[in-house]
């Protein structure tokens, strides 16, 4: 099984990053403006990227200001059954390290490589939103 892993450092407390990753407002400013999410274990978050089917992520784990885990239950066929985790750790200076993992890929494909790039752009959008209140959701991207 293949996995995508990225790390980034965001100059805000972990609580700010956690809120951005678990709320309608935060994910709407970071990933896509068309969504339905709740910070609730068992809830199926829905993300619309103007293609069928909707991307649906079941919330498996929420550990306040530390960890979020989703399982993809519907999306592109290569995503179904994969997991996504966000692990947060804040240092003494209030900077949060975020480790993003997209795991359980069946194989490394062209789509896997394209998603790898897009997860990096997701982390850039998250950093911009948390630090400057200006993310780049899917509908506003030019890259």
State the helix count.
3
Q: What are the low-pLDDT stretches, counting only 5+ consecutive residues below 50?
A: none
The CATH architecture classification is 2-Layer Sandwich
CATH class descriptor: Alpha Beta
**Structural shape:** globular
Overall average pLDDT:
96
Report the end-to-end length measured between terminal Cα atoms: 28 Å
- Measured as a percent range, the helix fraction is 25-40%
H/E element order = EHHEEEEEEH
Order of strands, main sheet, comes to 1-7-6-5-4-3-2
- Residue share in β-strands: 35-45%
Q: Measured on Cα atoms, how large is the radius of gyration?
A: 14 Å
What is the count of β-strands? Answer: 7
Q: Provide the structure class.
A: alpha+beta
Biggest sheet record: 7 strands, antiparallel
CATH superfamily: START domain
Task: Kindly describe this structure.
- This protein is an alpha+beta fold and 143 residues long.
- The protein has a single domain (2-132), classed as Alpha-D-Glucose-1,6-Bisphosphate, Chain A, domain 4 (2-Layer Sandwich).
- It has helices at 14-22, 24-30, 110-132, and strands at residues 2-10, 34-36, 44-48, 55-63, 67-74, 83-90, 96-105.
- A seven-stranded antiparallel beta sheet has the order 1-7-6-5-4-3-2, covered by helices on one side.
- A hairpin with a 7-residue loop joins β2 and β3.
- α1 (14-22) crosses α3 (110-132).
- The chain is globular and about 40 Å long.
- The termini are far apart.
């Amino acid at each position: 099984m293949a996995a995508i892993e990225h790390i980034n450092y965001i100059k805000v407390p972990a609580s700010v990053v956690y809120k951005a990753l678990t709320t309608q407002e935060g994910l709407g400013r970071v990933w896509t403006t068309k969504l339905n999410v709740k910070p609730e274990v068992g809830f199926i978050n829905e993300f619309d990227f103007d293609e069928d089917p909707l991307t649906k992520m079941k919330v498996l784990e929420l550990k306040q200001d530390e960890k979020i885990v989703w399982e993809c239950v519907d999306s592109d066929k290569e995503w179904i059954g994969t997991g996504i985790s966000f692990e947060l750790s804040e240092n003494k200076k209030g900077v949060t390290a975020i480790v993003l993992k997209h795991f359980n890929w069946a194989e490394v494909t062209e789509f896997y490589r394209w998603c790898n790039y897009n997860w990096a752009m997701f982390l850039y959008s998250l950093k911009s939103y948390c630090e400057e209140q200006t993310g780049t959701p899917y509908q506003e991207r030019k890259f």
